[in-house]
Amino acid sequence: MYEVDVIDFGGGNISSLLRCLKRLDISYRIHTGESQPDGSRPLMLPGVGAFGAVMDALQKRELDQSVKALTAKDVPLLGVCVGLQILFEGSEESPGKAGLGLLPGKVVKLGAKKVPQIGWNHVEETSEGPLSDGYVYFVNSYVAQPENPDHIWYKADYEGEFCAAVRHQNIAAFQFHPEKSGRFGHDLIFQWCETVA
Description:
Blueprint: E1 3-7, H1 15-23, E2 27-31, E3 43-47, H2 51-60, H3 63-72, E4 77-81, H4 82-85, E5 105-109, E6 117-125, E7 133-140, E8 142-146, E9 152-157, E10 161-168, E11 171-174, H5 182-196
Parallel strand pairs: 1-2, 1-3, 3-4, 4-11
Antiparallel strand pairs: 5-8, 6-7, 6-9, 9-10, 10-11
């Protein structure tokens, strides 16, 4: 059985992720700031809402410092949705508010006519792998622009190509919701757990 630590900053609904972990028989501990992760398990950082509000909530609970310290020690980290966006240095959504700065780059608004993007979209891995492409569920108005294109793991198209997932060393993250993306999304989570176990 795989084990993970889930960061719960109180500003997002993580129930769907926890249900997914239960279905996959992945054991988890939840950290709300009253307890801090100790690095003995890989980290999951889900998030919904505005970039600035998510960062404020993490900082209030000192979870931002825990995440940065542990990833610096090579503890694996998986971000989901806004949990991907806050890995970067900043976002157009919250000017002047710094992100975690774990990956170089910024977050920008989708350049599509209809925003937010809500629904299923096709994603394609930038290098061939066992889960090279599939359909996943998005709810987003903003997307990451990694400074290093090699950090893009999956890409998608919504009136223009955008970064749908990132991966660099011990850090990985999805802009979409794998926990709401059926078998393909669940397989992505399980594969990540296998890789970092």
